[in-house]
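anyone seen this seq b4? input:
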Amino acid sequence: MQRIDSSDNKKLKRLTSLKQKKVRLKENLFLMEGFKSVDEAISENAPIDMILVSDHFMETNKEYCRRLEETDYPIYITKDYNLEKCSNLKTPQGIIAAVNKSEGSLASIISRGKPIIILDGINDPGNLGTIIRTADAFGFGGVLLLPGCTDPFSPKTVQSTMGSILRLEITEINVGDLNELVRHDYFIYGMDLKGEDMVDETFSDGKTAIVIGSESHGLSDSVVVNCGKLLKISMPGSAESLNASVAAGIVMHKIAMK
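predicted toks r here
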């Protein structure tokens, strides 16, 4: 474990800069913060570039830090205020990891033959992270992001995935790529308030793709024309619509437990 004291240290500046999307793209890295997130990254044998811990974390987690030193990951210790500058959390937990991005590909996700969730214009990091986490929980084969979606590797999104970002393949696609799903026998459903009631739908096999749009705008017209069928979630209450991540969770549960 090496010590970093200077706030001008290049490694500290590099970690701080990973809050910016352009830097994440250039460096092919993203941040994972907090004890649980970093520990899960280690358990998953994630391609960790470096781990930074604060003096306070070291003092209060001595046994854990000893185990950290037994790994092959580069580990650095710094003053609390230095780590806080690198953190994206209001209350930093004293440990941050920079992890190499291992994005999936459309071909790889299709090859799994499992259900797929497709997102259209989901620009809220919390919603995107929750959907990724739910897709992981229900055994989906991957998440496809159409234009207008927020960065899945932003700090807020990563935090919301609760570690699922490490296990699920995620990739960006264009509307034209939906034809590739159909070519590989996937049936594409779009969730839309004008669709048929989902409760009556029978999802026959794993090759099912569900498109979820934003709560405010719904599905793009260019996406709707590529859907084989539109479905809706019946709501006997008074609310006009559901949060995108809630709607996605209901649909994924229906498909997974058919």
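The chain has two domains: 2-100, 106-256. The mean pLDDT is 94. kinda curious what u guys think
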